Amino acid sequence: MHDIGFIRDLALVMLVAGATTVLFQRLRLPVLPGYILAGVVIGPHTPGVLVADPRTIADISNLGVVLLMFTLGLEFSVRKLRQVGGSLLLVTVFEVGFMLWVGYQLGLLFGWGGRNALFLGAIMALSSTMVATRTLTENGLRQWPFARLVVGMLVAEDMLTIVLLTLLTAIAISGTVQTIAAFSLVGHLGLFVVAGMIVGLLLLPRLVDYVARLERDETLLVSTLGICFGASLLAAWLGFSVALGAFLAGAVVAEARSAPRVVHLVEPLRDMFAALFFVAIGLKIDPAQLAHHVWPAVLIALAVMIGKSVVCSAGMFFIGHDVRTSLRTGLCMAQIGEFSFVIATLGLTLGAVSDFIYPIAVAVALICMLASPYLLRSADLLAHVAARVVPRPLRLLLTSYSGWVENLRPVDENAVLAAMFRRLLWHIAINIALVVTLFVIGAYINAHNAAWFEHWGLSRDMRHSLIWACALFLSLPLLIAVYRKAEALGMLLAELGIRERFAGAYTQAIRQILAKLIPLTTLIVLAFLVSALGSAILPPRGVALSLVGACVLLAIVLWRGFVKVHARLQAALRETLDKPSPADHKQS
Amino acid sequence: MHDIGFIRDLALVMLVAGATTVLFQRLRLPVLPGYILAGVVIGPHTPGVLVADPRTIADISNLGVVLLMFTLGLEFSVRKLRQVGGSLLLVTVFEVGFMLWVGYQLGLLFGWGGRNALFLGAIMALSSTMVATRTLTENGLRQWPFARLVVGMLVAEDMLTIVLLTLLTAIAISGTVQTIAAFSLVGHLGLFVVAGMIVGLLLLPRLVDYVARLERDETLLVSTLGICFGASLLAAWLGFSVALGAFLAGAVVAEARSAPRVVHLVEPLRDMFAALFFVAIGLKIDPAQLAHHVWPAVLIALAVMIGKSVVCSAGMFFIGHDVRTSLRTGLCMAQIGEFSFVIATLGLTLGAVSDFIYPIAVAVALICMLASPYLLRSADLLAHVAARVVPRPLRLLLTSYSGWVENLRPVDENAVLAAMFRRLLWHIAINIALVVTLFVIGAYINAHNAAWFEHWGLSRDMRHSLIWACALFLSLPLLIAVYRKAEALGMLLAELGIRERFAGAYTQAIRQILAKLIPLTTLIVLAFLVSALGSAILPPRGVALSLVGACVLLAIVLWRGFVKVHARLQAALRETLDKPSPADHKQS
Question: A456 FRET partner, CA 20 to 30 A, in A311, A401, B46, B432?
Fold first, then answer.
């Protein structure tokens, strides 16, 4: 068999990974840093070169990231994503922002220049989902209340990671990034995520359950992997990272009834490629270079551990958790891992960072990973010490703060109304996002398939008219839905906002005006939005006006039909999300 | 992320494989040919090039073969290998030899030249384990009595495959192969298999069970993969195929108590890489070239299907199975598959065969695979028709033949003695093989590490003396064991062979002479063998003689110790093999 090189390298890596996992497991040390160290030992920079082909290593790493993100997605279903509370999201955004800033300042302090400093910030900002969930599992804490908080923050960070990855790519390619370009990027990303999620939720769980009913593990596995890699391919093709596609595919497939079976089948693959991923990271490291940068690495590791744990703990306490829970959550988040490597690799391959950033990132991650179980175990001790050291008045103040936050939570009638209000706003936002997506797709088709249209003898104007009409027609059910939700919102606001004691006799009149005003405003905003979005594909004014007229007519005639179509799609989506939860599938 | 090419190709392959598996499963067609066809469709030779990197494809294929062979090994444990009866082995050898001859003749008939013809023979000779076991499983026949026969023949073929692969490599490299070289090759192979099996059986099942007790799926999986790839690496390093190493590792690990758990964990990997393996085969195919060779392919496919089913059925009937069972076994073996691709790839990469052999092999395999389920289903019909068509006298003859074969089986006392006899011979053979292995290893160390010895200031003679002494010393327990078994064999033979009615009064004397003669002869043969084997590392005569004298002295002094060591090793081996069978782990 020719080209034995790849298989020899792989065999060596698997052999070493196998030995490491047993050894570190036996010594009760975390296994992931063990993989990295094993990689360093057999790497091309160590005397007695064993693995030497950089291409193989890159291939392996990429595959590892895709499968890792897919299984992370499978763990964090869309349902769980929705359960991440707004306050938790806020703490995460603050924490990630703070660590970005700390990393940036540290980088400047070391005199590494702006771009290196920026990447260092990103490397320091993101906790390791793999390490944190493993630490929880290995210490038997997976079912504790604070573990839910940790998982929630990790999910929120995963979402932020994707934003960061996209922004950093743009910065690395263009040198700097304009605010508008950044917003456009984040906007596109948001559209991709929302549209991908909704279309995915409508199709994929049903598809997976259908395949699962064929009752063949092989078929289920291969088709699920097809979905995972297909989504990665789509994401890469649209200019996002393969990791994003795989993560979204996992989160969507997790809503299938047969998701536990899928998890069960994919886990061995994840474990194999995770081992390869971490060994491959070690392979890239030159120990000599590592020794050269040992002090910055130690400093940065301390900054990560102290910064993350303090900010996360404080944030948790701030949003109303007790001291012990806050400390545990914070200490569990105090490390960096796989995303840091992805970001460092990104920086290196795009030529945006200096060579020494990668080994430093690995060294910092190694230190944090090794410290991780001890940090978590020290939480109770810390809480105990804190209870003794903190002076009594401050402790009283903190306790009363907790009580006060507890009382802030909305209750009874107000809570129900607030929930309705929030749901209506969400529905409107999602429908508008879908309309925007339709027009963006239309513009994309217009820009990339001009030749194809000309082949069919369609002039530029006719092409524009056709695409615009299609986008508008497909948007109709969504637009009608937005109008109806806005109407409901108007009524709700009128009921809530205009109390009789203020408006007196005019109450009813003002309420009616408000109830009409809101959907009307929404319609006007939508009209502007559609014409702005369609600017690239806007047909000549006459055609556009007549098309709008036709659509309005169509909307009135087919109103009930469109409402029914939309209701059916929404019901299908809700059915997927609200069905009884599949048996809890924990990471083993 | 750079180098997105590999992941894109892989994503495309997985996507197509996923769609194919669902579609073919739904249409109730066998999935494996579906993978190949899907590969042809997305291959670089089809308009609308999708997958284009040949290196990626080769990498994927190699990984697929290793994991495939490992899981095949896991299915066919050493225990099952021992259960393959001598008669079944004989039928398989005859069948493979016959198909080799048919293929060779066909190749000459087509005017393809000797070497192409030889490879064609090898391609046609080996049934597909994947296809046959799948056909059995998919038709719910896995537990039927004839399925045991099929699995037995497949195991025997797998062993022959390894011999064929090694021989073909030698032929392809050297052009021709001398009889002596072939024997040397097969001898080396046999030594590797036997020594690998025994050392493996002593170490690996215990290691795997130890890891399994850590109760972490990830650790068990990664370390098992380490064993699998490690064995492949060792085999490749010694000049055998990676497939052989993986197969042996699987067969040995299958003896661990936790083998069912390992199977469960490795199955998803096998399924993923099997899909990749078969799609990758399709990728290499140019449909245009396929069309060019359609008639040879059809002819060869017919020859495979008719030849294999007729010869296997006849062989099965000949060793005493009824017509229906024989037909079913024969028809289940009537296809070629993964090994044919491995052989064709081998021929291509070594430059030993023409380009058109590979697509023909694939076309033949496709036809046979698609026909496979229908062939098996036709078995009962065929048996029915045969019962009607065959004239009555012939039928009577056949029935009486079956009865006669049934009566041939040894019974009662004779059977017990025969079993003892066979066991003693086996023990002697295995111990001699181990002695030979020790000396071969010694010669290998002598040939490859001369510089290292010189570094330590050892002259050539001293090096020889040292290695020879080590080999001899390590062989002592084995040699003593051989002597003791030979003694037992002598007594058994004396008891059995010299009956009182022939020898009369001399019976006891002749028996005693025979009982002493046999171990003595064995010792002399062993002495010759050791000095012949050690010829490369034989020290000067004086040293050699004194070493032998020292060893004889040592043997006499430490006789009981050596016997104990050997008994302990043998007990460990027997314990591994004879422990209660782990829960039956079938292919799902």
Answer: B46
